[in-house]
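User: For my dataset I need records formatted as: sequence, then structure tokens, nothing else. Please produce one.
Assistant:
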Amino acid sequence: MKIKSILALSLLLISGALFSFVHQSWSSKFLTLNKDGSITYHPDEKGNIIPDFSLVGYHHGLKPVPEVKVIKTVGPQSGDAGKTLQSAIDEVSALPLGADGFRGAILIKKGDYKIAGTLNIKADGIVLRGEGNEAGGTKLIAAGKGQRPLIKIAGKGKITESGSRVKITDTYVPAGAKSFEVKSAKGFKVGDRIMVFRPGTENWIHDLQMDRIVERDGTKQWKAAEYNLNFEREITAIEGNKISIDNPIVMAMESRYGGGEIFKYEFQGRLKEVGVENISFESEYASDRDEDHGWTAVEFDQIENGWARNLTSRFFGYACVSLNGAAKNITVMDAKCLDAKSVITGSRRYSFSNNGQQNLFMNLETTEGRHDYVTGARTCGPNVFYNCKSRNTHADIGPHHRWSAGTLYDNIDTDGEINVQDRGNWGSGHGWAGVTQVVWNCKVKGAAIQSPWVSGKNYAVGVQGQKLKGRLEGKPDGEWDGINQNDLQPASLYKAQLKARTVR
């Protein structure tokens, strides 16, 4: 009888513990994950919601990164392999595009390849593939001196406006919205690529207090003409004068700050369907503080729909992968940026850097970086960093300066800080780093998440770590929810939003 009582008590305690464990999970006040996998968003008093970040990366995540057929193979050789590799790239570049949009993959066999300059990819449909990014695989070495990217993928030209501009007539279009009214939808059709234009205005900068940055040598006050923002979108529906778009508004459009406009655009010369995969990169260097050597492993610009996956870089001064402002719908995944070599100061060690739109960075790892997962000035979202780890970091993660709009930092694990704040006169006047920055279920040493004086909010949901005051006193606090609470559901906002697309 005594054994039965002990057993019953044990079962009761176990049941209680399990009940307590099950009920530790919690949900954010900003959204509800429904049983069918759909998401209900809870708007604020102005109608702003956390945006849908799921339509980012290669082809908006609507199709997987492909396995492209090898049509050219290059083997190891002594001396400078740059000329041989560039000749292979040029040879494939001259081939016609296939029905799938690719010319083919260049397989670089296992071994070491010293490259004194930069490999340039300037044509659509080319994949540069190695035979592994770890020891014994394919290693490309930035040999000798000179700050440079080892691989540069770039088209030519720039965005050009086509057709007339049309005014958005809503007094306020909230963050997260996927539709708005325009003066006239004539001349537009479903499938049109449009720019959603948000002008910079003097009264907006004044209300942000960015015309009053405390000055030091080199500080530049913000100027309205430098803050015209252009968000690339596609029309998905038209009802009367109501335009619906594929990706959401990630910064409120307000008539008091000039409202917004839309116009069709073209980008002649922009590349597409280019990838780099299964390669390790190293830079030669003279010392830990050497500044005259390989700077970036892979750089993208003037390209739409590309990828970098299964890469490892070591000893570069700036980045493993850097996306410039005209890089759109790029997926960077399963990559490592390790052991940077440079002076530890500004403009160095931006391990995975993004200045483009609708890009996805996932499953990444860094050591000895500064701004490991970072966006630059006037970066227009949505963009996503998901499931990324950072160790021995020397600065912070987050939007770096001068107004990035619409970035999700989801399940970032760092021994440093994630900050979204008014950076004041750092640099030449960084000021407010961004808006609609969502820090979701991240582990940090500390985080300062502030909201700007006007034009939106920044969010810290389920952050594990110390809440910091930020650099400057008296700035508005961000939207904090569940600091140091375990078992946030959904554990990943990006993954939940990706799943929710299938149940709409």
